[in-house]
Structures are given as C-alpha cells and as structure tokens.
Amino acid sequence: MATNFCRLNFFLCLLIALLACGNSHAASGDNSGLPTVVIDAGHGGHDRGGIPGQRIAEKDMNLDVAQRLRNVLAANGYRVVMTRDSDVFVPLPTRVAIANSYRNAIFVCVHFNSTQRRGAAGIETYFYSRDSLPLASAVHYYVAGGAPSSNRGVRRRGYYVLRKTNVPAVLVECGFLTNPTEASYAQTASYRQKLADEIAAGVRGRNSVSSARSTTRVATSEAIPMQPYMDQTKVTSSKQGKSKRSHKKSARKKKSSSKRSGSEARSGSTNREG
Questions:
Q1: CA nearest neighbour of 143 among 87, 206, 70, 194
Q2: Which residue has the higher pLDDT, 221 or 234?
Q3: Helix, strand, or coil here: 115?
Q4: Which domains are assigned to the chain?
C-alpha cells in the first residue's frame, strides 16, 4: 500500500514537472523572435552629465526613464539588460562590451540634453550604422510625436557607444534640462513614464519602418515612415580636416617666425660683439 502511494506520488510530481516545462517552453517560444534590449542610462556615479552648474542631474533622469523603459519592455515579453541599474559610473567600453555580448540584441541609450543657451529645446535621436536607422526612425517617430517639444530630427553621429556597438544602436535625447519648460516636464513622473512608453513603442515598431520618408506622425496601424536625417559625421570630419590644416599652417608660420627671430637674434648678437 505504502509502495503504491509512493509510486503515485512520484508520477504526480513527474506530471507536474512536465507540465511546468511545457508552459516554460511555450512562453519562451512566444518570445523567441524578440531581441534582447540592452538599455544604457547615460552617465552615473561621479559623472552627473549636463553642463557645469546645471541644477538637475542628468544621470538621475536618465536612470529613471531607463528603469521605466525596462519595466514596459519586460511586460511586453522582451529580455532586458541594463548597463547600470543604480547610481554608478560605467565606462563607455564596458557599456559597449555588454551590448556586444548579445547576438540578437538592440542597444538603446537614454540621455537628456543641455546647453548654455536656455532657449534650446526639442527631441533628438542619434544613430551611426546604417542598420540602426530603422530603429532610430521608429524611436524618434514615437518620442518626438508624443512629446510636447519641438522635433530636432534624427542625426547620424559617431558617438562612441554608437560607433563601437555591433548591434543596432540608438541614442535618444529626451529634451533639454537647461530649458525651463522641458526641465519642468522631466521632473514629473508621468512625463518620464510617457517617454519610456514612447521609446518602447519605437522598439516594438522598428520592423514596421517603411522606405517612405516623412516626419508626420500617422495612425499606429500604418507603416512608420523612415525619418530623414542629418549626417553630422561628414560635418565633423570636414571641421576636423579644416582644423588640422589650420593647425599645420599655424605651426609652419610659428616655425618660420621662430627661424627669422633666431636669425635676427644671431645677427644682432654678432653686431654687438663686433
């Protein structure tokens, strides 16, 4: 009798375990096509972000939006990895290494903007590699379309975390903390949640970006238009080239001037000695 009871108990436990495994496989199967989302909250620790004397610490706003974004994406079945989940400093190479350690992944870097000009305002989204443009378009389409701020557009730029990642990567600037109006928005939990919701919508809609280009937000059931972008990598290279050429010219002038001065000094010295 006892033996039969033990056998029955064993088979019941085995059945429960098999059912649990089946449910686990079903859940993971539903999410198998979703990428891992690596969320990077900019700055942290001793690096407050922003400009000197800025009242609001950018690092805190970045982390709050990033954590809210994690919660939204996790609720939608995404596997989420945070480069930082507290107020710590993480070097840029470490952030990139975390993103590159996942094969099927995307990288979303959360920042707020700042400048000495208090009137500057708006949403910007950056990317570098061409395969990151659909993600940048979708994220910017939703964030700029949902925020009560001006649309400063999508920009291609060689920021380290964008240039060094091997997966689609974007950096979204969620407004200017040096602008009184946008700073007041950023300090409300409801607005930071709104930003997280819109970024998440962009992540979910990245595969719905069409080749048609438009900055106008349309119904969410329609294809997301590819956003036009400003390629600032070329501008930067041009400026760097001019700067290098100017530096070389300046160096040649200084060298030539130094030679003349030395010659004049030697000549003067000879005359005095004579």
A1: 194
A2: 234
A3: coil
A4: 32-227 (3.40.630.40)
